[in-house]
């Protein structure tokens, strides 16, 4: 009997209230979780039949297509990149900017769409080019976008969403198979995930907060089988990862099965691992690791969230987790420990959902279907969407 069968058998016999296990206290207060999230009724109700864009949404929400790979962004002359991946939103005057990576070899990079105050598209343009398989990344408190290369010895590039400066390489943040980044302004560190089957969870401590050119890289350390409990951090001896990869340099490092999305808010860094369909919660205040979601801890056939990938959150504490595959959903995990589908894309089963990010006012959610209906690995049929509605804030 494998690990998942054992865990599911245990959970199936446990009593839950309305099918959901509540988190202990506030998710954001650094308290240990009472138990990983369980399926239950979502805050927005059931999904309705698909709209004209092929999206199933709750009542009160609407969608529009912002861009399609290989086609000009509406109202501009800019051709949208293939394989749209990680993304984030930034304030820009009376409007905002959505940036999106391109997960393709050699040309990779990132693009941006600028919106006017009324939500209309004002411009689209390139902010990074000539890089390699730019997967996810993260926003900084000083308004830049960290675009990460998902290749061995991959690099981090700091970019300016408004295009006012050329992107700059930040190799002191470590050379490894980068996925996502999340800034912790309280401890003045940047957390980093690694997309390898035996990847690690890192943090970069800059010498000066706001300047990522110099600093040190550390790796999270804990027993291999630990899913909850205290952790420590140790320095990486050689951040360049050659000839020994960074993930193999510290014997006490804890390894994670395919690090993906990363999101920080008020003392907690949430990150996901796709190999075991987990959402982890790193309590930065108490230096403790917990599980916020694990599909093996859900009764058989009841897991709403599989293919766990990119993640974002809201000021009110809701987490939005996108699926790579699964049934092409973005699921919401509430602070009370309930996980449920928020939206579903139909007829795109060979794609993945990437780059979820909220506009600064919190009423618009942006994301992409990386390969669209065709599922072409080159990402030539990628689609970037916007969903508008009464999001909880």
TrEMBL record:
Name of the protein described by the UniProt record: WD40-like Beta Propeller Repeat
InterPro entries linked: PhoX, WD40, WD40/YVTN_repeat-like_dom_sf
Domain of life: Bacteria
Gene3D superfamilies per the UniProt record, alphabetical: YVTN repeat-like/Quinoprotein amine dehydrogenase
Highest classification ranks of the organism: Bacteria, Bacillati, Actinomycetota, Actinomycetes, Micromonosporales
UniProt key word Signal: yes
Range of residues in the leader sequence: 1-34
One Pfam family hit: PhoX
UniProt keyword annotations, A-Z: Signal
Coiled-coil positions: none
Keyword Signal attributed: yes
């Amino acid at each position: 009997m494998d690990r998942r069968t054992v865990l599911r058998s245990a959970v199936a016999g446990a009593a839950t209230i309305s099918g959901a296990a509540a988190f202990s206290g506030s998710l954001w207060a650094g308290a240990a979780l009472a138990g990983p999230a369980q399926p239950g009724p979502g805050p927005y109700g059931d999904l309705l039949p698909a709209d004209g864009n092929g999206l199933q949404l709750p009542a009160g929400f609407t969608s529009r297509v912002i861009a399609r790979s290989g086609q000009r962004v509406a109202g501009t002359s800019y051709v949208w990149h293939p394989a749209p991946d990680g993304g984030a939103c930034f304030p820009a005057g009376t409007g905002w900017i959505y940036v999106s990576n391109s997960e393709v070899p050699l040309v990779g990079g990132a693009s941006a769409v600028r919106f006017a105050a009324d939500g209309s598209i004002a411009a689209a343009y390139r902010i990074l080019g000539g890089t390699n398989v730019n997967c996810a990344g993260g926003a900084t408190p000083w308004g830049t976008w960290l675009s990460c290369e998902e290749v061995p010895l991959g690099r981090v590039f700091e970019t300016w969403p408004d295009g006012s400066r050329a992107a700059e390489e930040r190799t002191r943040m470590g050379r490894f198979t980068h996925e996502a980044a999340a800034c912790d302004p309280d401890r003045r560190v940047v957390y980093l995930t690694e997309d390898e089957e035996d990847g690690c969870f890192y943090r970069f401590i800059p010498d000066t907060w706001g300047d990522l050119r110099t600093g040190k890289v550390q790796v999270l350390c804990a027993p291999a089988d630990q899913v909850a409990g205290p952790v420590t951090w140790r320095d990486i001896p050689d951040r360049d990862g050659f000839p020994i990869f960074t993930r193999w340099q510290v014997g006490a490092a804890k390894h994670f099965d395919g690090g993906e999305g990363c999101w920080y808010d008020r003392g907690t860094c949430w990150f996901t691992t796709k190999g075991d369909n987990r959402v982890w919660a790193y309590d930065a205040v108490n230096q403790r690791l917990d599980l916020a979601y694990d599909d093996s801890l859900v009764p058989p056939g009841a897991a709403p969230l599989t293919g766990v990938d990119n993640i974002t959150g809201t000021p009110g504490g809701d987490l939005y987790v996108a699926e790579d595959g699964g049934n092409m959903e973005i699921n919401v995990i509430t602070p009370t420990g309930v996980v449920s589908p928020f939206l579903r894309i139909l007829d795109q089963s060979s794609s993945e959902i990437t780059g979820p990010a909220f506009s600064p006012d919190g009423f618009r959610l942006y994301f992409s279907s990386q390969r669209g209906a065709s599922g072409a690995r080159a990402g030539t049929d990628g689609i970037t969407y916007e969903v508008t509605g009464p999001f909880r804030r």
